[in-house]
């Protein structure tokens, strides 16, 4: 194929019949990754993309240099205390990946950090640059140190397919042990004595379904648990107290947790409470009792307690509130911290334990009576616990950011209630937050629901202005108001950046999520269209460029089908645009698990008809569509590359307008390119395309 003209995908008529309806998919052949025609087509698309965007190369390089110039390339994270060590990561100018390090802990206060200067007595635990070598892709899936600090378990992926190889490193000698385990999933957990490491494996549908126990120095690993229900994922972790191993099995709507004394890794896990459809719960060990965060008869979750010898017996502590979604509980020896969400913002609530003694239940009930929330000054922000591995501590480490405040790390002194700023991410080149302003606005959906929109711009930017409108809206995932160095390249060119907090996300609690899933999924798309219309009608925007990725890519495709005239351009990254065909095929990764999110079109004709009514690929028509840039990766295991490839092919064959461009990373996964400089270049490419759409 010539790169001078758009590639034309061949049409091969493929028919499938579901519930009496014939589905014709003329581009289904693109799903065969091994077919040379598929590779040739994707490469032809990449060649065409290069030609079509060649005129943006200077702007792309300029934006890349802006991102690079604003970034402190040689930097250190704030060290976190764990046992006898302070752990941190650092980056070095010119190197793609972070270096994990530690230094001995001589006091309770974290060591003073100076960017560019390694800390005294530094020990390198894991050097991502050394491990990556010349590989075009590299990712770490697990990095876990034994409770005594002597051994590291780490796993690596060199393809982007999220299949990791697990290895073990003696941190006292630097020796990498001969133990090597391939084809594992993310994460894992050590036993309390460091003799055994627990990890998970995935099935053919990319579902983590087995937990294994590896004893160091042995060859045969033991299968600890296998989940037969295809809707459930499994995971394994060690409590902060290092007292219990926690094995969780969960679907989108139901949980089941097992616990095991971490000093007895060969023992039997016991069920906290058997699964009950629709009931989600999590368990946190708090010394002489468990905290349980659950949603039984509590839509936004409530906090309960349970005795160690009867963890399934729950007593309510923090009652359910309609306006507050409880997100997680972190337990420590002398206090607990609840991370919550209210009115579209996150927050932290401290439960201090009484020093007056009494039973554990009396102490924890007193903590609820004495609980308080930490205040923050900005109208929009995002806050959460960050790096609190120690069970016994008088400080809470938290992360804070807003649309104008760079990510900041604080220690909150529990005794004095003082917030101590440890570090704010440097933004070089004279960045001043006072030059920018952020707003919360509200759009009105077609059913009258008020949709929050978070907005940021330079103060001197006149309205209306070109606008990037970002959206996601699935899985109760919230797109909180955060900072971005790369975004400054838009704002400083007179753009407005906005996030539409559409239903299907979790910004306004569990009900907000429920109103944007299953047979109410259309609300997600119409909310976004309403937000785009509001940005124009209220005078914020003259040209709106929509952007979203993964399930947010589904949002991009569906919203564009609903109102193509609203958008001056669309960037869809690893987009889930062939939703109906994917969710109809239980052999594909994640499909059965996803039925709780989207419904089951394979067995339910009503769900089939509903999904067919909004699936982007199914609903492309002959109207004039805006320019669309779809970005995908060949090794993506979550949203397979063929979805955007088929979508672009059908747009080009059916729709007017455009152009329609496809960019395929031939050696990456769901997150795109792995090195930070490579990632900056990819972002610069997308931003250059957006800038042209907004200003031309």
Automatic annotation (TrEMBL):
Pfam families: Peptidase_S9, Peptidase_S9_N. GO terms for molecular function: serine-type endopeptidase activity. Residues 483-691 form the Peptidase S9 prolyl oligopeptidase catalytic domain. The keyword Protease applies. The keyword Cell cycle does not apply. PANTHER family: PROLYL ENDOPEPTIDASE-LIKE (PTHR11757:SF19), PROTEASE FAMILY S9A OLIGOPEPTIDASE (PTHR11757). One of its GO terms (biological process) is proteolysis. This is S9 family peptidase.
